[in-house]
Specification:
This protein is mainly beta and 338 residues long. Helix content is 4%, strand content 46%. It has two helices and 22 strands. The structure holds beta-D-mannopyranose.
Length: 338
Amino acid sequence: MMSFKKYEIVGKNLPHIPWEERPEKQRDVLWRCKNNPVIPRDLIPGSNSIFNSAVVPYKEGYAGVFRCDDKNRYMRIHRGLSKDGIHWHIDTNPIQFLWHENNKPITLEYAYDPRVCFIEDRYYITWCNGLNGQPTIGVAYTFDFEKFFQLENAFLPYNRNGVLFPRKINNSFAMLSRPSDTGHTPFGDIYFSSSPDMTHWGKHRFVMGKLKEGWQSTKIGAGPVPIETSEGWLLIYHGVLTSCNGFVYSMGAALLDLDEPWKTLYRTGPYILSPQEYYECVGDVPNVVFPCASLVDAGTGRLAIYYGGADTVTCLAFSYIDDLIDYIKNNSVPVTNK
Ligand code: BMA
């Protein structure tokens, strides 16, 4: 147990988030949940796989938006509720979004890799949304995880990994995203955009790019909603290496400037988690760890990260915010846009 916290975390005390202490022999900054994968591919009857999903504290427990690819291999997002963040009731049917202007039900082309972010009075959902068959960032909100209102897409295609900041920055909503292409994009950097109203996005700034070699040398993309700390926005992200056997997705972390988040302060040279367990190496897409959500207890600094394993199952990994921040600072590559 940590006796004191080094760094401030802006957030609530959530003493009951999923948690396991660091195993004695574990030297890495992150450690995996003993019960991984916590959500199996077949939790609901029609699902082929449940992965790359988002979770937030809600009422006495947790709510989530889950990527469930069905047995047609159509990509859909479903609502889930849980008392403990580990055992989930996921709806059999996908979320029925209502168009914000007239409350009419919408048929989505496809939807995947959701993130959920509480800002001010509601929960916003962002996801990779099919527009004329091409990926862009869908945006919706809910107050109660019962009714979901869809807003305009944030950007033109092609874009993926749209991740909101949990508060306005300089009076504007703020989002990270990863401009891409139509397919299994062989490039990609993280950009920042802002909006006065959650509809019109602009002031696009470059944040972080892929590196010349190693686990983040093909492309990178934002993961969970950034966590506000005294040391900057803590961003967990994925990075991709192209091996002779295809893409390998690992996890890294960075600290971004609080007021100007397009300025990267530090980012990890080594990965913080890479596909090594069987449920990360074997599945519909082998060798993928893909983080989309985290829960933080501001009181203790405990961090629980939800990530997809091999595009098939949902897993959990743990760390302490203090340890992760120290790790990022002590293992950073030189960053140029401070
Ligand atoms: C990306 C997205 C993710 C997926 C990853 C690995 O392009 O489609 O949903 O986890 O590829 O297949």
